[in-house]
Automatic annotation (TrEMBL):
PROSITE patterns: ABC_TM1F, ABC_TRANSPORTER_2. Its main location: membrane. It comes from Dyadobacter pollutisoli. It is found in: Cell membrane. InterPro entries: AAA+_ATPase, ABC1_TM_dom, ABC1_TM_sf, ABC_transporter-like_ATP-bd, P-loop_NTPase, Type_1_exporter. Residues 37-317 form the ABC transmembrane type-1 domain. This is ABC transporter ATP-binding protein. Keywords: ATP-binding, Membrane, Nucleotide-binding, Transmembrane, Transmembrane helix. GO terms for molecular function: ABC-type oligopeptide transporter activity; ATP binding; ATP hydrolysis activity. One of its GO terms (cellular component) is plasma membrane. The chain crosses the membrane at residues 35-56, 68-88, 151-171, 177-197, 258-281, 287-306. Residues 350-584 form the ABC transporter domain.
Amino acid sequence: MNYDLNKLSEPEQKTSTYKALGKLLKLISHEQKNLSLAFLAIILNTSVNLFGPFLIGHAIDKYVVTKQFHGLLVFGGILLGMYLIGLVTSYQQTILMGGVGQRLLFTLRNAIFNKLQQLPVAFFNQNKAGDLISRVNNDTDKLNQFFSQSLMQFVGSIFTMLGAGIFLLAINVRLGAAALLPAVLILVFTMVLSPWVKSSNAKNLKSTGGLSAEIQESLSNFKVVIAFNRRDYFRKRFQLANLDNYQTSIRAGLANNIFMPVYTLFSNIAQLIVLTYGIYLISMGEFTIGLLVSYLAYAVHFYNPLRQLAALWTNFQVAMAGWDRISHILTLETNLTALPETETVAGPLLEFRNVHFGYDTKEILHHVSFKLERGKTYALVGPTGGGKTTTASLIARLYDPKEGTVLLDGKDIRSYSAEERSQKIGFILQEPFLFSGTIRENILYGNEQLKDHSNEKLEQVILSANMGEILALFDDGLDTKVTSAGDSISLGQKQLIAFMRAVLRSPEVLILDEATANIDTVTEKLLGNILKQLPDSTTQVIIAHRLNTIESADEIFFVNSGEVNRAGSLDDAMHMLLKDNRTS
Ligand SMILES: Nc1ncnc2c1ncn2[C@@H]1O[C@H](COP(=O)(O)OP(=O)(O)OP(=O)(O)O)[C@@H](O)[C@H]1O
């Protein structure tokens, strides 16, 4: 399955945009009351603004032309009242929509983050963290800006235009048609240019994501950058990404700003038409001065919102480009779904049955079959890049086979829920990841059974699991601080914490992927003893390059060139490795 968000096909992109629109509507469905109130406020506001010019024109013809100035005061009072209503309704809709926008931003960020948590490892292999961060932070904000600042203005502008258009046509059809002609040209112009504006903004957002990915990569690898003195390399890469972002921003800016001047030009032309044609009609006795004043005001009421729409249309296109990028994540589904419960068939604890697997088109495991019995210790050996971690990842169902089945306890591993599976399988990764916090928080991560234990009780559990000596290696015990993804402690110490984390979950299968590679010989022996004292039913899968670490294995598998074969004894494994090194 293709999880690369930047390489989705055209139809995939289109379906996700529409599919996700349904999700967006669901996310704001509980805002119905606020949206209706804001809508009401905007209609009231528009109506009040639209009646103003009519009243002014009427007042001119009735009181100014006939010089009955006292009537003007009454009209002035009415107008003031209407303007105050306009002020209150405008404020109300701003407040209401601001709230809707912020809540949408909040819900949307949560929804995307939750979705990210559900996606499989393959998704994270194919996408850069920086780009994902940009989607969660930057792109959602584009949508918020549209909702909180533009949507109601958008609705208001359309209402004002519609009302003003009706007044223009109702007062004088011919003059109205002439005044509205430039608007038709604007409409055509907008329809032709909108796809270009949207795609320019999409490119700009993509480039912002790329820039963010570049920053993220160089910051998270800063030690390598400094050690290899490759600052120039990253500086150049950053400059390229920054240059691309600069260029796409300029292009998006150009596209975004094209509407405003054109709209202004057409708006001025419309006023010129009204003025010239209106004066002509007055000279012919077919129109009054008061009506012309109202007319000019309505032309302004029609074209000003249209100019505003130009800016809003740009915001809309930016929001849509952002929405496309968000929707691609929201509509992705994990390919690691749980199958319906299947019947348990008595058999080994774990079995690979004709498994084929590859990360992409290249096959890494080819027609692999083997069985692991309960309570035994297995070693996976083989050359670098031979497929040991891949085999272990399939045991932990980080990926599903392309063909064939992995059976856990007699059932297809896909029929277990994620909770059940992670309870049964403990995996100590080659590069253990620790969260910022304390050792306690890290070893209790995902451990429902022990999470509420006090430090004293937890220490007891650690002692009875024979891991007291490991904990004693840390000065502050369970409260030892782990900062910034574990950078404050050594790699070996990280492996010890990851070891405690996995063992405390009492898994049925414990996978150790190079779990002792960075630990001194004395501590390694200590871990060996702890492993020996694990419950008899625990099956261990040990991946190690140092053959002495697998001396205690009941059975050894040699993993290479897509195959997993029994190696027989340690000597056989050694022989196979040496042979493989000589032939390669
Ligand atoms: N996420 C991935 N995406 C694409 N290819 C991958 C990925 N992870 C591993 N591979 C490829 O799969 C092959 C097997 O890798 P794997 O990590 O399973 O080997 P290994 O035997 O565990 O190696 P090592 O002893 O170095 O840990 C390698 O060719 C590697 O390049």
